[in-house]
């Protein structure tokens, strides 16, 4: 049978193309435009070529922020993934306490980001904050506004508080889907607790864990609001992550050219890492079913 | 391998059961012999899985004891009872190879590696999976996975019993025959005590030496397939086993005769005075259609099932099924039926009454 050719179908895609153009493509293109031009306001642009990209690639400031951000993401993943799994394994499976835990765990995820920042900013203050005051009364000289290590600790603990539930809830859902027979069979096979985790629970959780890691990586790599509210990137530049630096450059200093070049590279890095994650994930799947 | 004694066993899912209906498993007292294959047969919710889980140790019975070879194991956990169990859905460790799957129960018991290797090889041959030993279990079909579960159950030589919980549910019909035959062979070869839960009478009757029929939490009959067919102890057994099941006809019992409507039929034995609802049971296989004499029936429908025909008829307002030979002519005039007298069972309030030689 011959296929019908009907080019009119393209018209059906048109509304979607228009929406995407206005919501994504055109704004992105203005950024591209800024990144290759120099502007002094009044909509006057002077061609700059790849100058801003070159400048940004050799900027110590950008590399330092990138380094801090990579470190932050690594720490976040190293804490939240194992902790999330641990919490999921220990949550009740049914009854009142299961629902109770689910609600409590979901709460931090529902709080707006800047509110999370404000909560911790106050929580950590030595004069009126519960945490800060408690640490002071223990004789610990805790001050996240002056001590970079304290600032980092505060931000990490805050992010763990905010996002570990996401990992835990995803893992919990995966665990709930394991039929009881698996546990019974493992018992009869005299499998140890570790082996039950390794051969039954972990394989079932693998899919959602990959998603959780990807989400947590992207989010932590793009983190802005919470550290901005708590530390404002300080003390010094010690908690200035990429997006904080970007906003400082674009809105604070009004260096639109460099900032645009910076954000395009930032975008590419995230795209690249996500692509690598995705490829590794799908390949692992293929490999296993092929064997 | 073990003899399994169920002593005054009963179970209720209520914490303090007060009436009979609250027991999922009503009191029973049985000894199951070493090396026999038993099938627990019954409709869904009849308590057969409860009984299996009590034997495997997943459920602790509310009363009574389970003994393996005379040793009380009621309080032992499943892993301490040295049993194997095959579940309704295949349980395999997806990330392991077939070989690792089969070796898993032995490895966990820290057996000698050479012994494990030899044993895995032997089991793989038995279940016909030597060719795929080094494949991951994940990509295999459902019946291959169920074979692995089966193999994992058989791999330990010294298990007290192997329990099967409707193991062929997810298997394609043509594979069911093969797996069941394989099970029979394995049972003959190794003589494990096997307990097989199913709601499929064909599976139960072809697999087991002894079929235990359960109904509403009670064991209504335990016997060979032959006994269940010829002398069902309870109307449920008569109805549940056979296709179609036994005909049950309300009748008044008077000595060696049964009165149905205006007619009487001869019974193979003599009965005393019976109380309660009395019925006679006759298998459709033992009913013959004739031109008379006999009891007059009305034929409603004829179903041709290939090797024979099922005649759905009515006898004094009560349904009656007859199995007629393929190709045998139906009565041309007013249809009548006759019963083989020695094949008639008599029931009072659902339980079979043993007659005296007439």
From TrEMBL, chain A:
The topology of this chain with respect to the membrane is: Multi-pass membrane protein
The record's listing under InterPro entries reads: MetI-like, MetI-like_sf, Sugar_ABC_transporter
Q: What is its main location?
A: membrane
Q: Which UniProt keywords apply?
A: Membrane, Transmembrane, Transmembrane helix, Transport
GO BP, sorted A to Z: transmembrane transport
Can you cite an annotated GO cellular component? plasma membrane
- CDD domains, per database record: TM_PBP2
Per UniProt, subcellular location reads as: Cell membrane
Q: Name one Pfam family in it.
A: BPD_transp_1
Q: What domain of life? A: Bacteria
Segments crossing the lipid bilayer = 12-36, 70-89, 96-123, 151-175, 196-218, 259-281
ABC transmembrane type-1 domain spans which residues? 66-277
Q: Which family does it belong to?
A: Belongs to the binding-protein-dependent transport system permease family.
Protein known as: Glycerol transport system permease protein
Species: Amaricoccus macauensis
UniProtKB/TrEMBL annotation, chain B:
User: What residues does the ABC transporter domain cover?
Assistant: 4-241
Alphabetized, the UniProt keywords read: ATP-binding, Cell membrane, Membrane, Nucleotide-binding, Transport
What Pfam families does the record point to?
ABC_tran
Gene3D superfamilies, alphabetized: 2.40.50.100, Nucleic acid-binding proteins, P-loop containing nucleotide triphosphate hydrolases
What GO cellular component is one of the record's annotations? Answer: ATP-binding cassette (ABC) transporter complex, substrate-binding subunit-containing
UniProt-recorded Gene Ontology molecular function terms: ABC-type ferric iron transporter activity; ATP binding; ATP hydrolysis activity
Q: Which family does it belong to?
A: Belongs to the ABC transporter superfamily.
Q: What name goes with this protein? A: Glycerol transport system ATP-binding protein
Q: Where does this protein come from, organism-wise?
A: Amaricoccus macauensis
